[in-house]
Amino acid sequence: ERADKLQTSMEKELDEERKIMKELNTQIRDLQKAYETLSDDTELEQTQSAEKLQHVMECLDQANSQLRLTRDKKTEIEGRLSKTEQDEARIAKELEALIQQLADANEQ
After folding, report:
1. Element spanning 88, H or E
2. Which helix (H) or strand (E) holds 27?
C-alpha cells in the first residue's frame, strides 16, 4: 500500500512535470514566432530603408546633373554675353569712324 501511494505520488509529480514541460514548450514556440515576426519586421524595415536611401541617392544624382547643366548653361551664356559686349564695343568704334569719315567728307 505504501508502494502504491508512492507510485501514485510519483505519477502525479510526473504529470505535473509533463504539464510544466508542455507549457514551457508552448512558451518557447510563442517566443520563436515572436522572434521570427520581429526578425521579418526588422528585415522589412531594413529593405525599406535601403530603398528610401537608394531613392534619395538617385534624387541627389539628378540634382547634381541639373546643377552641372545649369553651370554649363551659365558659362555658355556668360561667354555669349562677353562676345556680345566685345561686338558692341567694336561696332561703336566702327560707327564713330564712319561718323568721322562722314564729317570729314562734308567738310571737303
Report:
1. helix 2-107
2. helix 2-107
- Cell readout for 17 is 512535470
Q: How far apart are CA 89 and CA 48, in angstroms?
A: 61
Q: Which amino acid is at 91?
A: I
Q: What radius of gyration, in Å, describes the C-alpha atoms of the chain? A: 46
Per-residue model confidence as pLDDT tens digits over 49-89: 999 999 999 999 999 999 999 999 999 999 999 999 999 99
Nearest to 99 by CA among 77, 13, 107: 107
**Nearest-CA neighbor of 80 among 69, 90, 88, 91?**
88
Residue that the C-alpha cell 567694336 belongs to: 90
Name the CA dihedral angle for 54, 56, 62, 68, rounded to a multiple of 10 degrees. Answer: -120
**Which contacts qualify for 50-55: CB closer than 8 Å, 24 or more apart?**
none
